[in-house]
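WP5 quarterly update. Target: SsrA-binding protein. Source organism: human gut metagenome. Length: 34 aa.
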Amino acid sequence: MAKQSSPSLIADNRKARHDFNIHETYEAGIALTG
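Structure tokens (predicted):
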């Protein structure tokens, strides 16, 4: 059986966070229907 886990961060650009000042972050997604 597949292991259930809570939603987590898929990707994080650590170098961008280190090199630049990030003021806001956005979370986006897509919904597939069919």
